[in-house]
């Protein structure tokens, strides 16, 4: 029987299991207050009164598989995977523990480990106030040929951690300029662009274009990739997702890139306290697993009334600024703590 059988029986029919001690009864009735019965499903009331559908551990493991290695999974760590389960609207008591076990048994995850650090310098965090004000840009590759492409051009917004990427056949100035024009047309002209000192970024063609748009071009310190640390993390994140999802021939990576970006944008980011998708759009990104396993949103909250949907979206957009302010404060606080710990660990505590 599912773990929530006793709770469901009490809330649906008022049936209390017999033979409980006084201590067990106190705990049972205390726990009941955290659940809501809406026939035929039981929901747990989470923080900010968010309802998550209670599922059996068996169904939970299927959901976990979707959230870790499915289309929008991305093979993230156990914390991000468990958070994605919660964001999708599901709950069972051992979510985090099961996510940890699942990640440890995931073969692609175990084959790709972390990169060790060496000879590190003190950190100097880059803190930006407005979304899409500062972008970092870099090439990743070369990769095995995939539909004529060998490189990935990656750009990340320094506030929302929103990532854009495109598979490209070459890594020259022409493709960079074309990519940036498309980026600016979607997100507006930024104040600054941060890149390394490669010839594909440091050339007359690009400098003239950025000058025409009024964008300041900042260059990373030579042989010091930590200058654009957020971008390096994004590169590593996208690359790891592709490593764990491509076929044996490794020639289908360009087809998997859009799915990797979807997974990256909907993964929980600790500095943000939410997902990049939420920071940009002010609403949750609904994933296929929510429809397949009947999350609350799919059962009750699909609103086809355009007037009501418009009102809801209106309030979401008005809350967006408050959300971004909270993200900024949290990000600044975490960066300061991280800098302090990092500098102390490398012997620069002064």
From TrEMBL:
GO MF, any single term: nucleic acid binding
A GO BP entry: DNA integration
Span of domain Integrase catalytic: 121-284
Top-level taxon in the UniProt lineage: Eukaryota
Transmembrane segment boundaries: none
Pfam family, one: Integrase_H2C2
Protein name: Integrase catalytic domain-containing protein
Species: Mikania micrantha (bitter vine)
């Amino acid at each position: 029987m599912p773990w929530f059988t006793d709770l469901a029986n009490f809330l649906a029919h008022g049936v209390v299991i017999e033979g409980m001690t006084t201590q067990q009864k106190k705990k049972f009735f205390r726990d009941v207050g955290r659940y809501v019965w809406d026939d035929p499903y039981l929901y747990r009331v989470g923080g900010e009164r968010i309802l998550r559908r209670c599922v059996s551990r068996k169904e939970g493991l299927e959901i976990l598989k979707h959230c870790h290695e499915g289309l929008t999974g991305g093979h993230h760590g156990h914390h991000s995977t468990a958070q994605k389960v919660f964001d999708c609207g599901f709950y069972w008591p051992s979510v985090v523990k099961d996510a940890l076990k699942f990640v440890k048994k995931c073969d692609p995850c175990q084959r790709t480990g972390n990169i060790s650090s060496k000879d590190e310098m003190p950190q100097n965090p880059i803190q930006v106030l407005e979304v899409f004000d500062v972008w970092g840009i870099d090439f990743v590759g070369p990769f095995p040929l995939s539909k004529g492409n060998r490189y990935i051009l990656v750009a990340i917004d320094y506030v929302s951690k929103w990532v854009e990427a495109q598979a490209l056949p070459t890594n020259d100035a022409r493709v960079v300029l074309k990519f940036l024009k498309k980026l600016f047309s979607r997100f507006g002209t930024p104040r600054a662009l941060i890149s390394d000192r490669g010839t594909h970024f440091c050339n007359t063609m690009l400098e003239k274009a950025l000058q025409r748009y009024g964008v300041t071009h900042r260059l990373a310190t030579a042989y010091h990739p930590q200058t654009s640390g957020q971008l390096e993390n994004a590169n590593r994140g996208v690359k790891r997702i592709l490593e764990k999802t491509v076929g044996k021939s490794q020639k289908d990576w360009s087809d998997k890139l859009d799915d990797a970006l979807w997974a990256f944008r909907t993964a929980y980011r600790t500095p943000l306290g939410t997902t990049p998708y939420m920071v940009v759009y002010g609403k949750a990104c609904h994933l296929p697993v929510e429809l397949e396993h009947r999350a609350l949103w799919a059962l009750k909250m699909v609103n086809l009334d355009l007037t009501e949907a418009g009102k809801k979206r209106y309030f979401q957009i008005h809350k967006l600024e408050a959300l971004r302010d909270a993200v900024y404060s949290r990000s600044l606080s975490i960066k300061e703590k991280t800098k302090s710990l990092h500098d102390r660990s490398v012997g620069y505590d002064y």
